[in-house]
Amino acid sequence: MTRKKATNIFLCIGIIAVVIMLLTFDIPYAQIWKNLHKAGWWFVAVVLIWIPIYMINAWSWMVIIKGNDKKCAVPYFQILKYTISGYALNYITPVGLLGGEPYRIMELSKYYNIDRASSAVILYAMMHIFSHFFFWAFSIVLFIALKFEMMTPLTGIFLLIVSAFISAGIYLFMKGYRKGFAMKTLRLFIHWPFIGTKVARFMVSKEATIHKIDERIAALHKQDKRSFYLSLSLEFLARILGCLEIWFIFMILSNNVSFTNCILIQAFTSLFANLFFFMPMEMGTREGGFAISVGSLAMSGAFGVLAGLLTRVRELIWIMVGLVLIKVNNK
Questions:
Q1: Which of 89, 248, 257, 319 could be 99's S-S partner, Cβ–Cβ 3.0 to 4.6 Å?
Q2: How far apart are CA 259 and CA 244, in angstroms?
Q3: What is the Cα–Cα distance from 49 to 143, expressed in whole angstroms?
Q4: Is the separation of the CB atoms in 76 and 262 below 8 Å?
Q5: Stretch 295-324: mean pLDDT, rounded?
Q6: CA–CA distance, 234 with 60 (Å, rounded to integer)
Q7: Are 274 and 153 within 8 A, CB to CB?
Q8: Which position has the higher pLDDT, 99 or 116?
Q9: Is residue 1 pLDDT above 90, yes or no?
Q10: Mean pLDDT of 23-52
Q11: Crossing angle of the two packed helices 50-66 and 76-92, in degrees rounded to 10
Q12: Mean pLDDT in residue range 177-188
């Protein structure tokens, strides 16, 4: 399959998914427009705050691509383009199986051989998920420090369970960074119905390439710790900056919402959404996460409803931007 044909397939998948989402919105369009009108310029801020967030994400990925090299072969704005388009495809496909990672590998292979392109994409995907765990851990510490008086036995049990989950996640990722992830991940898919046989054949035919990818993954943490921790710090910064989106939305209804509350709401909502990662565009899980997190902080349910709606519309806007960018400057 040619690169042009593959690009058109990615674009078609995205367009079909967006049309389906628009036709199956569970809120009347009149209600959506009313809320957007109510939000006014704050909604513009909600959309635009993702420009610096994506720029930081692209910088983080560029650090990984560059590695020990003095220069990166890929121009920064190309990386930014692949970042935005990749996330757009990930939003609309369950688990990203037809989404951003294959697209990014395809685009990055213009500049590097396939094993380096694959390892750079896998490493960044790992780093992006890895930063989730640090963000959740930071939020638990923040909650205990600032909301200790709200602690109940049920809350304490919940925090212990979440803490155990976060600790296990960090441990598994650090182990993966030391020894590589690609081969072990593919071995898990061998036992899946429909795709298991194909994955097994792929592993046999591409065994040398997979081992090279794992070697590159391990090399980032062992040999280039500065790049590893810089990339992780940038991803964590992007998550904190993303909490401004929640703050902008809540400023529509009240100016008494603290930024620390927005961090806690974002952390709980993202945790809830990631527990149901198999849902395309996190359909329903995002709204449920907002409703539960806002309620747990003794805030009005109107905050959660408005936040769920406006973030859904913002995602649709950036999905369409990402799909357009797939075809921009794609010689």
A1: 89
A2: 8
A3: 25
A4: no
A5: 74
A6: 6
A7: no
A8: 116
A9: no
A10: 76
A11: 110
A12: 72
What distance in Å separates the CA atoms of residue 121 and residue 146, rounded to the nearest whole number?
A: 37
Residues 6+ apart with CB under 8 A from 195: 189
Longest dimension (CA), the chain: 60
List, in sequence order, the alpha helices (H) in 251-300: 259-275, 285-296
Eight-state DSSP code of residue 255: S
R_g of the chain computed on alpha carbons: 20
Q: Helices in the chain by DSSP H: which ranges? A: 3-23, 29-39, 41-48, 50-66, 76-92, 100-108, 114-146, 153-179, 182-189, 196-205, 207-223, 225-250, 259-275, 285-296, 301-327
Q: How many whole angstroms separate alpha carbon 285 and alpha carbon 308?
A: 10
DSSP category for residue 40: T
Among the ranges given (191-200, 232-241, 262-271, 310-319), the one the predictor scored with the smallest mean pLDDT = 191-200
How confident is the model over 29-58, as a mean pLDDT? 83
Q: What is the mean pLDDT of the chain?
A: 78
Write down the residue that tokens 């709204």 correspond to. 287
Contacts of 166 (CB under 8 A, 6+ apart): 133, 136, 137, 140
**Neighbouring residues of 318: CB distance < 8 A, sequence distance ≥ 6:** 47, 50, 84, 87, 88, 91
Confidence of residue 83 (pLDDT cuts 50, 70, 90): very high
pTM to 2 decimal places: 0.81
Q: Please report the sign of the dihedral spanned by the C-alpha atoms of residue 80, residue 85, residue 91, residue 96.
A: negative
Contact 35, 309 (CB under 8 A): yes
Instruction: Give the sign of the dihedral formed by CA 22, CA 23, CA 27, CA 28.
Output: positive
Please give the full DSSP string across 89-132, using - where no structure is assigned. Answer: HHHHSGGGTTSHHHHHHHHHTTTS-HHHHHHHHHHHHHHHHHHH
